[in-house]
Structure formats: C-alpha cells, structure tokens
Amino acid sequence: xxxxxxxxxxxxxxxxxxxxxxxxxxxxxxxxxxxxxxxxxxxxxxxxxxxxxxxxxxxxxxxxxxxxxxxxxxxxxxxxxxxxxxxxxxxxxxxxxxxxxxxxxxxxxxxxxxxxxxxxxxxxxxxxxxxxxxxxxxxxxxxxxxxxxxxxxxxxxxxxxxxxxxxxxxxxxxxxxxxxxxxxxxxxxxxxxxxxxxxxxxxxxxxxxxxxxxxxxxxxxxxxxxxxxxxxxxxxxxxxxxxxxxxxxxxxxxxxxxxxxxxxxxxxxxxxxxxxxxxxxxxxxxxxxxxxxxxxxxxxxxxxxxxxxxxxxxxxxxxxxxxxxxxxxxxxxxxxxxxxxxxxxxxxxxxxxxxxxxxxxxxxxxxxxxxxxxxxxxxxxxxxxxxxxxxxxxxxxxxxxxxxxxxxxxxxxxxxxxxxxxxxxxxxxxxxxxxxxxxxxxxxxxxxxxxxxxxxxxxxxxxxxxx
Length: 467
Description:
single chain; alpha/beta; 22 strands; Metallo-beta-lactamase, Chain A; Rossmann fold
C-alpha cells in the first residue's frame, strides 16, 4: 500500500490523502485549502495526482476543509463514487452550493474594490454552483457500522467520530498480496461529554493509523467552567452596550453555540438581548440537524427533545436569511446584541462585513470559538494583531478579542492519546499525523512515542510512504 499526503499535511486545511492498493486509487477527503489568498487559489486549482485516475473516494465529514474542493476534483476528471454517511451527504448538498455562492459573492466584492483602485485584473471563483451540483451526483450515502466494498481488496466501515453531524472515522480492512491489515483514518475526532453529538466511536486494533493532530499540543479547559465563562462574557459586553461578534463555522460550531446560549437564556444567566445567526448556510444546516436526531446524544434528548423543545431555536434567536436583513444588522448599532456568523476562520462570508463594521469599536467583542489556521484573519486576531486587512482595506483593531477553546470540535492531546490507546503499540506499524500544524503535531508525536508508539510520522506536503 502506498499513501501520498496530498493536502492537510502540516496544516489544518485542504485535507487530501491518496491510497494506492492493489493497483487501484482511493482518495480520502478533498478539502478546500484556506490561507493566504494567492496560495489558496494556486493550491486549490491544482492536484498532486490525476483526478481521472482515482477510482473512488471516501469523505469523513462535510466541513469545507475536507469536502470543499470536490467540485474542482470532478471538473478535473474524477468520475468515481464518493462514499459518506447520509447526514454528511445532506450537509454537503447545502455546503458545497453555499461555498460556490460565497466565492461568487466575495470575488464580486473584491473586484469592485480592485476596480476602484485601478488594480489587477478580475478575480474568478474556483467553481460555480452548477459545478457543486454536478459533484453531488457522485455521492453515495452509507450508514454507520455497515461494511461495504469500495475497490478490490478493500472493505470499509464508517464509525461515528463525534466531530460534527455525520462525521466518521474510516476503518479499511485491506487484503493485499495475501496479507490482511486494518487501516484507520480518524477523520476529525470529536470530544467526549459535549452536548448534541454522541462520543467518538474509536477505531481499534489497527495496523496503520492516519490521525488528525489539530490540538495535539494543547489541552482544553474543563467543561464545568465554559457555561459561566460564556455567560459572564456576554453579560460584561452587553452591559456596556457593546456587540458580541462570533465567527463560527456554520456546521457544528454554530449549533453548539446556539445550544449553550439557549440553555443560558432559559436559566436566566444571560440578559434578554437579541441573538442573530447571520448565515444562510447555518440556517439550512440547522434544518439538516433537525432531520437527523438519530445522531444526537442522551443529554440533548433529556435537555430538549424529550421536552418537545428545539435545541436550535428560542424566542430571542433569529436566523437571518436575506442580504438586506444582514446589512440591517450593521445599522443596529446602539443596542447590545450577539451575532453568530460564518466563516469560523473569518476568511469569507458575512462575518467579514460584521468585523469590518465593529472591529474598531472598543465596546464590542470578537469571540473566537475554534481553531484558526495560519495566515487566516481569525488567527491574526487570536495572535493580537493591531491592524488587519478586510476586503483589501486596513482596519485598526480596537475591539476586545477573546478566545474560548472549549467549543472546539477537536479532541485535545489527552483525548487523542486515549483514542490511540485502544490500539496496542506493538501492533501499530505506523501512525501518520495529519490535519495539524507542525508544532502541535511534534508535541503529539513525542507524547505518542512516550506511550510506546515507535513509527510516528509527520508527513510533508506531497510526501509518499510505502506502508
């Protein structure tokens, strides 16, 4: 078996891992790279392999850094099936269309700015909505824990990864050259004891593991602190008349934030202020969540569903749909409120307009609630930038910026180590750490070696291994 790490190596975006088994090619993920605009455009428009040569693909979950470049892949000649859970298929139907829409909208706005300045030629979107719809025709929905054949000698089972709705770890039972082995691809691993989704179903007794390492060098804050920290933050900002702007991924993170705010509102722990979810994708994705209650954990059933309450809707919450409604929020300046808007890394979408209008307001707060890749706007804010560029214009950062890592959908180092512990180290031939920046990955590599795993690799982009 040959593994080539074509994306998501030493970075957390653009995941792509190509397996060659029995002369056939199987692609794990086809994510959109997010980072510096010029780099992203170049990377997303090309592949380290011939897409037409790939026989099949498996998608672990619907986040754009894992699924977002599928239309480009299909445009470039890929014609095989794309296997994913039913919930992931439903989410991708809205997410890929939304990705195409956002690209068109943002390039239109950027071109307007460039024309005003007499700058370079027109910026073009990576793909159109029609391309996204064409890619969706290749999807094949499968259920958790039901084995199926993908290519000769490879049988696959998807296990619940607990990261977002429909997310999966991938177990590949491989027979090659008369030898049988169990290959695991973790996808993105969720956290235990977090509301909404079930805990991760660990891949066990593996010979080779391809594993995410996003928070491989960090430890999340205890859950018992998070509700009061969120409540006190909201109280502090709204009492001084400010706005809370929360850049959040439309799928997974937004629903979790809404869940917590709903609970805090019901308990009287946050003030009675308007809460807006300004993301058409989040609105559509939340409806997909509602159609898949089979993915929810017992806590969500006990807190809400068994009491005939919607976890994702309450009286002070409003989902914003139209552009006109979104623009109206920027004129809503003299009353405290909360806006949750995409994207989580603040690289595209409506949140850019809310940041543009509020980033220089000392009374307001930008609350960052998840991981941000290097060179993204969210990461620059996390790192304490004094000025940032939004839509090509420099803005002074005068608002408060706060990071709460508890809301991350990724397991931290201790949880990742627990995940690996279900695999005897003497059996694991190789562990490949992906979907993590080099620093966190090296810390996790050292922790795994202390735990007895010897062959732990951090692949370079494009690197190939025989395993």
